[in-house]
Design a protein that fits this description.
The protein is of the alpha/beta class and 97 residues long. It is built from 2 helices and 5 strands; from the N terminus they run βαβββαβ. The strands form 2 sheets. Strands 1-2-5 form a 3-stranded parallel β-sheet, with helices on one face. Strands 3-4 form a two-stranded antiparallel sheet.
Length: 97
């Protein structure tokens, strides 16, 4: 029995993330593990007078990342994985890490 129960893969639409997704799908299939697909919506900053720079998530980016994750989940299910989940959180700030 494998020690892997769930595999987390982050995607952003890049070729590297696509390869990571394929590798994660292969590992999950071999280990009989679940797969979590995540894409973090990056913040943009807008300047609002006295408030200064304020993170501003654009709806079109939220939608784009949501559609990306949905396509990735479909790829994983098409590859035979049953236990696939997803998340599309919004980053609060690049400096909050």
């Amino acid at each position: 029995m494998s020690g892997l129960h769930r595999i987390l893969v982050a995607v952003d639409g890049s070729a590297s993330a696509d390869r990571a997704l394929e590798t994660a799908i292969d590992l999950a299939r071999l280990a009989h593990a679940g797969l979590n697909v995540v894409a973090v919506v990056p913040p943009h900053y807008s300047y609002y007078g006295e408030a200064g720079l304020v993170p501003d998530i654009r709806p079109e980016e939220r939608r784009w990342f949501g559609e990306l994750v949905s396509r990735c989940v479909e790829r994983a299910r098409s590859a035979g994985l049953d236990e696939v989940s997803s998340a599309v959180p919004e980053a609060r700030s690049w400096t909050s890490c």
